[in-house]
């Protein structure tokens, strides 16, 4: 249940279809239909722009990377109102940008098509753009590999000439070998290699099937581990390591397009808590094809293959986890026999966090991520796994590894001690971190990348009053230039306030109407996520644009990061261990009450709540369990019963249902929905019928339980839509429905 950074938890996406009103008794006119539109023309125009421009983010540079010679920055960029991305090059010396390649030039008028496997992979990666969604740069920087419509194209940077590689259709996860002479990829459930010089394809693995794939990451690896690949080149390109993922024992769930039942169902291997996972093993085979040597570890005790790296400066390295993720081992593989030797073991009484940037092998050994000292920390360990020294301390607030410069003994990372802000930092020899800011000032959300030698940095800057901009700077922070944006700029600036409230110092944000009068009591909508992977209080204009649009219709919009959320230490985050329904809801209620103590305009008698995914779960939980505080709720794609979500996410926090059934019972919405003694606040449920992450039957189960208990609610099914819904018209209509719900139930 990962979330993209700027989607946050409140990205309520939906369809234009009318809501199905589920009831147990006759309803009044005021609650059985949406009220007429009460938005002003400017509010309607803003929502339309917000949807069509993808939150005003389309047209901004993404996926930027330095060429090895540090003379050029490549990046992708869409059009202001069209997410079809094109490849660009920024010249560091002149500051000029030119278009390198367009999807139209390669397709020559043809339509972009994707296989079912690639569509599912993009859903896991939260990619909704079209055209070029990724690219690979050869290690020498001479060639660019561009996948498009299931095919591969090789671009020579010097001449600009593009060549279609003769791979056949349906290519997934393509990558250069280190020497640039080969391109590897997965097609038809097997790994293939293409020799660049002759444009000739060779099969590397044999026998892959839809139920026993070779080279593809299984569902939970992609969705929960952020491991999107299932194959790896050796540094010398002589061998390939690959996963064999056997899903024959995994339960299959079916999705049918309810608008087109004639098309039949699509089946997905989806492991639910306490039930079988995919059986995954790792093999090594010659790149020319041949016998496979299988890596040996205790897969019964450590069934999850979480991380695989094959570095130049170290051995083929695996990170494996036990089922409840309380223990993991880092292993080095002997290529000849497949035997593994242990480098280190990590344990945690609650759970262990994964970071796919580690291990990072260097001359002295490898860099390692740990939370054993209460927060994110980077250690330098010897080649045998022995601790050498700590490089980044827990109090530094590491959120993302960027680069380690060995000669300078300097590590760059994104983050910082304040969870509402983020910057690019560098730390030398484990000393005090130093922020690297390209001429920017003030509170902001920034993230950076660093060139190979560290001579240049690229920092994307966003603040409470500015949208993201990407600045190129030297290592000392002096600005060189800016990657150009063609995005539409918002017509409004959020009126947002940040506070720490209550005894626990919850981070909060509050957005007021543009025309709010001091002392005027207003209803409140809490924009919630509250899960253990995402915070929602960010000092960023982009994060609060929709909140301002909502506020301008007569509301205060609040966000609260309580216990269970990340970035405030391991103990704070682990407060949700074995119970999703306790401190998560308590802290949202305590947070709004503490906010009301400081903001007299907060009307505690008219508090609503809305969210998506885990936030949808929280909104529904608030309507069922916290109706004394929350008087209306909109729950989008909620996990209703955690027995029906996936293994790796759920068991990390609640353990196995066989050993901890009470954790599942008290975390399930069905427990509270079927309780006749509990009242329910006005609740609107929204869910995509084709959701393959949180399946639509979650909402159907909740609706059925509420109906049988005689508890009125409303249901908006999103026909044919998944967990991620990018259609602009649908987004626009959805938010109209959301606001109509709150206007009916919270405004006098």
Order of strands across the main sheet: 1-45-44-43-42-40-41-39-38
Question: Biggest sheet, in brief?
Answer: 9 strands, mixed
The CATH architecture of the domain at 20-54 and 489-746 can be named as 3-Layer(aba) Sandwich
Work out the number of β strands.
45
**What is the number of helical segments per DSSP (H or I, 4+ residues)?**
14
| Assembly type | single chain
CATH topology of the domain at 20-54 and 489-746: Rossmann fold
Helicity, as a percent range: 10-25%
Q: Rg to the nearest angstrom?
A: 26 Å
Q: Estimate what percentage of residues fall within beta strands.
A: 25-35%
Principal-axes geometry comes out as globular
Class based on secondary structure composition and strand pairing = alpha+beta
Task: Quote the distance from N terminus to C terminus.
Answer: 37 Å
CATH homologous superfamily assignment of the domain at 20-54 and 489-746: Alpha/Beta hydrolase fold, catalytic domain
| Average residue pLDDT | 92
So what's the CATH class of the domain at 20-54 and 489-746? Alpha Beta
Low-confidence stretches: 3-36
